[in-house]
Amino acid sequence: MQFFDEQDRSRRQSRLLLSLFALAVLALLAVTHFAFYGMMLFVDNANTSEQGVAIYWWADALILITIAGASFYRWLTLRRGGIIVAQELGGELVDINDGQRYLQAMNIVEEMAVAATTPAPSLFILKNEQGINAFAAGSTPSNAVIALTQGAIDNLNRDQVQAVVAHEFGHIVNRDIRINFQMMALLFGIEFIALIGRHAMAVVGSSRPRRNSSSGKGTLAIAVIGGVLFLFGSIGAYLAKLIKLAVNRQREYLADATAVEFTRYPEALATALTKISQHRTGGRVLHENTSAMAHLFFYRPLGSWSGRGTHPPLADRVARLGYQLDALQDALAEKLVSPPVQKTRSDGKVASSSLLNEAHQRLAGLSPSLVAAAHNPSLAAILIPAIVIQRATSSNGSQVSPPEALTQGLDQSALSCLNELTANLETTGPSSLLALTEITLPTLKQLPPSEQRKLRKKLKQLLEHAEQPQAFQWCLAVLVEFYLEQEPPHRPSIRSMRKLKGPLSLVIWSFFTLGETSTQLQDNIAELARNALGFDIAKREATPVEFSHFLHAVQRINCATPLIKRNLLNLLEKLAQADNVSTQAELDMLKSLSIVWDCPLKLR
Q: Cα–Cα 20 to 30 A to 443, which of 109, 131, 366, 368?
């Protein structure tokens, strides 16, 4: 998987979407303009004076403004992320205290997030939907959610749920979720026009006819306008389906391929698709808002015929995975219940990939109390600073009492929780600490904004007063800052490494030299950086770097193109091997920065 090639392809498809949308609006305006003129000719002999012509152009302008306004309004409502879509479809957030099947699904999502080096999406269940389906939604990976229907929970085994979740992660890492949000916002503008026309016609239909000729003409004019707008919207809805067809179908194939890369188990995805074909309701989702969001789903939520434009046929998807739908249907028909979790594939090979195995091991190293704290908003706000302190103490091998900034404002009960969490963290392996942070991040977003600000302030205070700051601490704090940031994501605006000489130099030196570093190693780092960048990086400052400067540098680099960020991550990997030793801390720092810069490390 060439992740950055797919990012470029996603941006090209975003431009294609905008172009198709513009053409659709222009075509509809032309049709509506002449239809409106023809109908007004019948009503009022068509005023062809300059004033009359101006009225038609003003009508066009009003339609354009309405479309733009409705699309912009929808985009504003979607800015909060996938949680809005999940709630609009009746989804319920999964809690750690829910049933075992829900908890298993949540564990799968978290394992996949750790394997993909992305923020863990919140998991929602559409409990009223018995069809087998799922979707991912969000404008960025940091505000994405994954939703499963109750039918998927009830009818798929663990391997199949994992394959479906991996498919949805494919949409997240390939940036399909942002394209889908753009489609929802843009097409809402066209559909809004149809809604206005439908209401106008309903008003006319419910009004009592009057004998007054002028009133009759006015009523007829409203009916004409409503009819034109309804026609506009109806044609627009058809064009919207064509746009979804142009953009969405190939992305489904790509998400299937990404799922197989994650799991190394195509049979699980193929049998999940086959079960949809055999299920009494297929993948149907009955919620009233499904139609506008049909392109988000794993399979056609409106039935086999209604949504066929947005998703490839099941047989084609199964065939691309190397299986035949008819053969799988016959094989599954012989089994009255879902098969147990399969540890090996039919060809005898291990079912899960090394990425998922590693993620599972890292999460398995966490105590139940730490996992419970990671899913409890009030405890998560205590847990994150405790992880920072634990990593510092585990790095220098000595125990220190919690600093005042960590305990400040905590009551006796919270202090007791802090001590218990700290004790559990002391027995947690270093490789599990970043994984614990990743699964805690979605819980932090459930905190009130004021509590989120307090947490960010506390982390900064801890780092400002640290006697021997560790680079991992800084990267962890930057990760939390990025995840809780309320600002919209930066658009790539920096296309030259040279424009980032200062931030690049600061990040490189902070990454490797917060501790003691030999002069020889510093020279090696400078030479490797010069060979990779084509210019000399700034010399290491004699005075200690402040965390605020490091944070600003990371945020500045985040404004660069994905190619620049990829090259910088490649450079940091090379520099990590400059002393012929790659530590767990360096690997965790790379993963943290890859999440912040929206560059999944494992997929490069």
A: 131
